[in-house]
Automatic annotation (TrEMBL):
Residues 1-20 form the signal peptide. This is Lipoprotein. The lineage of its organism: Bacteria, Pseudomonadati, Pseudomonadota, Gammaproteobacteria, Vibrionales. It comes from Vibrio caribbeanicus ATCC BAA-2122. It comes from the Bacteria. InterPro entries: DUF285, Liste_lipo_26. Pfam families: DUF285 (PF03382). The keyword Membrane does not apply. Keywords: Signal. The keyword Signal applies.
Length: 335
């Protein structure tokens, strides 16, 4: 690993702004992992091997701190790479030029990155066509500015759980192919931009949710979320717990949703300020818990007396602290 110290020249970083203005992915599939090469941009790059980030702490730390420039063409796993890291001198933008064409997993890659000035990335050049897991990819970043992800190929992603949880992501997602996604739990939970009335996320109405089984906490505490997702296919969803809890503006007409496989509706609309859509036609025949489902819901008062709640075993505080929901409109619980 002594060779790693040789190319660490200050001259590598003198022209970084010029590099930032280019949009060229650095590729090295024809290069031997563990070697160095000079790129056409005049910089020296180290060729990362698959698994090297897990095997070699020294290499991983140099990558995390952007002490060296690397080519990632051989890498398949980028999990946890920058988890909790600092955006050292703003150098994380150098990941803009990484070759991610063989990457299959990005779990928590940028989760909780710390930066006073925020994390600003232009990832339009990233090839995400092989990625299957993006769980918590950009979670917990207070100042997050992303460009280029609106046209990402996410057609093979199965897990988007917590992908933007407690971040301030905005943008248009209408072009995302989410047809293989099974887990969207916590995806936009606690979204700060929405919470603070920032630029909205849009295009979610175009999500293909046919294979999603978990939507729990998806918009939990995303205060100002105001989206029309009435046409979502929820026919395979089993868990909707806390999905819209603590939202202030959500009132989409979701009465047509297929809830025939849902078993958990705990706190689904807890502390919602605006929701009063007619969901009287929902199929609740498999639901086992409705605990706090409408707890402190400010406006809801739909007649749900026709709901099949024969399998519900927990309905504690179903509409607790709710002065709007007439008990005569509650489902007729037998357990």
């Amino acid at each position: 690993m002594k060779r790693l110290l040789l190319p660490l020249l200050l001259s590598q970083f003198i022209c970084l702004p010029a590099l930032a203005n280019q949009n060229n992915t650095v590729r090295c599939l024809d290069k031997e992992p563990g070697t160095w090469f000079s790129h056409t941009d005049g910089k020296d790059y180290y060729v990362l091997a698959e698994g090297e980030l897990d095997r070699d702490r020294d290499i991983k730390e140099k990558v995390r701190t952007m002490e060296i420039l690397v080519c990632t063409s051989h890498v398949r796993n980028l999990d946890y790479l920058f988890y909790g890291a600092e955006n050292y001198q703003g150098k994380l933008y150098l990941t803009n030029y990484w070759d991610t064409s063989n990457v299959t997993s990005m779990v928590m890659m940028f989760d909780s990155v710390q930066s006073r000035s925020g994390l600003s990335l232009d990832l339009r050049g990233w090839d995400t066509s092989k990625v299957t897991n993006m769980a918590r990819l950009f979670a917990g970043i207070r100042r997050l500015h992303l460009r280029g992800i609106e046209h990402w190929d996410v057609s093979n992603v199965v897990n988007m759980s917590g992908m933007f949880e407690y971040s301030n992501i905005t943008g248009n997602f209408r072009h995302w192919d989410t047809s293989k996604v099974e887990d969207m739990s916590k995806m936009f939970s606690g979204n700060r931009a929405i919470l603070n009335g920032g630029s909205p996320i849009s295009g979610l109405e175009h999500f293909n949710t046919a294979n999603v089984t978990d939507m729990s906490y998806m918009f939990f505490s995303a205060g100002h979320v105001d989206i029309n997702i009435s046409r979502w296919d929820t026919s395979n969803v089993k868990d909707m717990s806390y999905m819209f809890a603590l939202t202030e503006k959500f009132n989409s007409n979701i009465g047509g949703w297929d809830t025939s496989k849902v078993t958990n509706m705990r706190s689904l609309f807890m502390s919602t300020d605006a929701f009063d859509a007619d969901i009287s036609e929902w199929d609740t025949s498999k639901v086992t818990t409705m605990q706090a489902m409408f707890h402190n819901a400010k406006r809801f008062n739909t007649d749900l007396t026709e709901w099949d709640v024969s399998k519900v075993t927990n309905h504690e505080s179903f509409a607790g602290y709710n002065n709007t929901f007439d008990p005569n409109n509650w489902p007729v619980f037998s357990n």
